[in-house]
Amino acid sequence: MNDSTIESMLRRAPVPCPPAALLYRLHADVRVSTAKTNVRESSFLHLLQRWWPVISCLVIGVTMASGKFTAIAKLRHENESLRAPTAQIDNLRQKNAEYQQLTATVSEVKRLEANYSELQALKADAARLRLAIAEGEKVKADNQRLLSELRLPPDALGQGLFSKAKSARCINTLKRIVVAARIWATENNKDVFPSSFIAMKDELSTPKILVCSSDEGKIAAPDWEGFTEANNSYEMLSPGVSELEPQVVYVRCRVHGHVAMVDGSVQASKRSVSVVQKDGQWILLEQNEN
Ligand SMILES: [Zn+2]
Q1: CA of 268 to the centre of ligand 1 (A)
Q2: 242 forms bridges with which residues in the sheet?
């Protein structure tokens, strides 16, 4: 018997009728399955209740671990935050060191500039000194040349200047004498000059001025009581002369020959001018005059 025969026999077989309680049994089976499902759910809840402490511990542990991780992360973040200022401090320290080095460099440059300025000033002073020394040497050479040309001893020039100073001092003394004489005449309501130096001692104040500085043979009197001609370098040529005779010579220095005129002027001695007595009056006379 092959398969085809079997198949044809089965096709010809009567259709079986299902049992009457089949549907009920099927429904029962279905409820049993549902009950099995509830049993499964109840066993899951049982397991959950059984393992709940463990699960709770696990959850708590996980939660705590998560909190620790969060705290560690926060600490790491704070640590990073703290490291940043530290790095900034190191950077600032390095910049400060560079600034200090730059400041020292600037100070050194300023010191060098000051030294350079002082050096330039010293160079300028040295140049001026060299120029002054050169000028001094030139003046010295000119003086030596002039002295050799004049055939004078080295101190002759100084002696000449000293002599001129004494002459000028003598002229000044003559001016004081003639002014004192005019004051004496005014104070005494007279039109004549005093007839002696002692007569106008108040106006002259001191007899010391009556010794010419070039008159080495005379010594000044300390006061008028001891005053004599030995203490006098000046000769009064016209004692008691009238103020109306301005051309008359009143006083003359015996050493220099300078004269004080009645008009108040003083004439220095000249080779071309002589003091002569004419018609009873001492006057100045040019040598070419008759
Ligand atoms: Zn004199």
Answers
A1: 10
A2: 192
**Cut 0.70: pTM above it:** no
Find out whether 275 and 259 touch, Cβ atoms under 8 Å: yes
* Residue span of the structural domain in which 276 resides: 182-286
Token pair, residue 170, equals: 């003598």
What are the tokens at 48?
A: 């959950």
Q: What is the pLDDT of residue 31?
A: 66
**pLDDT tens string 121-134:** 888 888 777 777 77
Neighbours of 2 (CB within 10 A): 6
- Any domain includes 102: no
Q: Does 125 map to a domain?
A: no
Question: Domain for residue 29, yes or no?
Answer: yes
Among 49, 79, 109, the domain boundary falls at 79
Residue 170 lies in a domain: no
CA of 212 to the centre of ligand 1 (A): 5
Return residues with CB closer than 5 A to ligand 1 (ion): 170, 212, 253, 255-256
Identify the pLDDT of residue 122: 87
101 conformational bin, left if phi > 0, alpha if psi -120 to 50, beta if neither: alpha
How many structural domains are present in the chain? Answer: 2
In whole angstroms, give the CA distance from residue 147 to residue 195: 48
